[in-house]
Amino acid sequence: MISSTSKKAVFAGSFDPFTAGHLWVAEHALKVFDSLTILVAENVRKQSLFSVSERKKIIELSTAHLPQVHADSFSGLTADYLKAHHIPFLVRGVRGGGDFEENRNFARINRDLYPDCETFFLACPPELCAVSSSLVRELLNFNADVSLYVPPAAREYLETLRRK
Question: pTM score, two decimals?
Answer without folding.
Answer: 0.90
